[in-house]
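Residues determine shape. Next comes a sample protein:
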Amino acid sequence: MFKEYDVIVVGAGHAGCEAAAAAANLGSSVLLITMNMETIAQMSCNPAMGGVAKGQIVREIDAMGGYSGIISDKTTLQFRMLNLSKGPAMWSPRAQNDRKRFAEEWRLALERTPNVDFWQDMVSSLIIKNNTVTGVKTSLGIEIKGKSVVLTNGTFLNGLIHIGEKKFGGGRTAERAATGLTEQLVELGFEAGRMKTGTPPRIDGRSLNYSVMEEQWGDENPGRFSYTNVERPTEQRCCWITYTNAEVHETLKEGFEKSPMFTGRIKGLGPRYCPSIEDKINRFAERERHQIFVEPEGLHTCEIYVNGFSTSLPEDVQYRALTKIPGFENAKMFRPGYAIEYDYFPPTQLSLTLETKMISNLFFAGQINGTTGYEEAASQGFIAGINAHQKVNDLHELIMKRSESYIGVLIDDLVTKGTDEPYRMFTSRAEHRLLLRQDNADIRLSPIGHQLGLISDERLDIVKQKVANSDSIVAFAKKQSIDMAEANEKLEELGTSTLNQNVKIVSLLGRPQVGIEDIREISQPFREYLSAFDKETVEQAEIKIKYESYFEKEQEIVNKMQKMEDKDINPDFDYSQLGSLSKEAREKLLKIKPRTLGQASRISGVSPSDISVLMVHMSK
C-alpha cells in the first residue's frame, strides 16, 4: 500500500508543514502524517504571524525558500512593522491573519508541491533497527517504511486539557491526544518532560461594544513577509485595545481555588513571556490593569480572539470576568479558554541539525523541543526537513550559525543550553542582532537557499540586484553635495543644526534626525536618482549609510568569534581523559557533545578555564 519514503513527517502543524515542503522541494519523497487532514497548519492560538524577533524568523524562512512568509502574506488581515521608533535591528514585521484561510492556503501549497503524499492516522511508535529509524507504525497497525522521520507532534503527545477542575485528554480542543511515542522514546533512553501552554476564550464579535475601545489600524503602506511578489489582500481589518480593571481581577480571583495552575494539577511549566491572565494578576499584583488586544479571526467570521486573556479558570469565572472588561459587558462566548499540558524532550538530546543523538535519521522539530510559537516551530521544521533530505542522500548537513540568522541562534540555544520552560525568541537573545535584521534576511540567507536548491537562479539574481542598487545609492550619496540654502530650512524644521557650507548627502544622513525621505524632498538630483529604485532598496541604502561604522565593528566581533567556531571537536571525543576539566564541565561536554569550541564555550557550566584546557589540548 505504501512505498518506502525518503522522509516521513509526523504532525502537520507549522513545523511539520515546513519540514514536508522543504524536503519535497529538495527532491525527497515525503509522507506527511496527521491525525486530522482538516486541521493542517491550524493556528491553534493567536491568528497572527511575526512580532518582535519572530517576524525576523519568518523573513529568514522565506529568504531560504520556505512557505510561511508567502502563506502569511496571502492571508493577512492587518500588517504592522513594530518598533519603528527604535533602530532597524529592532524593526519586526507582524501580521494579523485570517485563521481559516491560512490553513487552507497551507494545504493548497502542500498539495501543489510535488513529492508530498498525505495520510490521516496517528503514529503510535517508531520502527527502529540498529539504532536507526526505518519507519513508523500507526494506530491502524500499518507499518510505513521511511529512510528518515521528523517528529513535529506539537502539543499532542499525551496532551491534557484543563478548564478549572475539569481535565480531559486532547492535543487541541475537540481533538484527541497522541499516545505511545513518548513511552517508546523514554524506553529507548530519551529524557522527557512536561510543559504547559494556554489559549484565551473566543468571543462573538457582534456582542462587543467597540466604541469604548481604542482602535488599532495597520500600517498605511503595509509591508510584507515574503521577498517574492505574492499577491496580498488589499483590505485591512481593524484591531482594538481595551484593559482589565480591579473588578475583573477580583472576579478572576474567585476562581483561584479551582485553578489547575494554583492547585498543582498542572505540573508542566508555562511560557514565562506569555502568562495566563490569572498568572499576571498573581505575579504583578501591583498593576491595576492589563492590556487586552481584541483581534478578528478572519474576514468572513465574527469570531474574536481575546489576546492577553489566556486562562484555564472555570468557564463561568472566565465569562463573569470578561463581562467586567470595557466593551465586553454583553459579550457572548463561543468557547472558553483552556490550558494544555504535553510531553516534550529536552533539546540537548539533539545535534545542531536537529537529528537526535541517540537514534540516527530521527529528527525533532517544534514544541516537542520545548519551544513556543508558530515561527519558532516553522523554522525548526524547515531546518529538520532540509537535514533529513541531506542525510538520506549523503549530502552535506545544514547548520545555521548564530552570526548569520535568528534561526541559528534559536537552534544553538536549544541544543547547547537546553530549556526547562517554553522557549520564545527575542532580539536580546541574538548577540549580533544588528547584523540579523528583517530587511537583509534575503541578502544573508538566499545564497544558502540557492546552494541547497530551494531558491531559483532568477530569485537570487533579484537579491544580487538589490545589493547592487543599494550600493549605488550609497555611492551617489557619498559624491553628491547638497546645497546649504536648500537644506537649512528643512534642518531647522527637523530640530537639528543648520549648515554653514555645502556638504555631501551622506553627511546629513548620518544625523539621527534626518531620513532619506527628507533628503529626497530637498534635493532634486537625489530625488530624480531615487525614482528608479523601489522602497525596500532605498530603505536598505539608508540603513547602510546610517549604521555603516556600527556594522563594521559588529562584523569584526563576528570574525574574532568565528575563530572559535571554526575549531571543530570530534563528537566522539572522550572528555574524561582531560583531568584538568572541572567535573561539571566533563559531564556537560559528554552530554552535549559540542561540534565546535565556540559551541562548547556556550554550554552552561563550562567555564573560560575549561575552554582554555580544551584549546591547549586541541593545539597539541
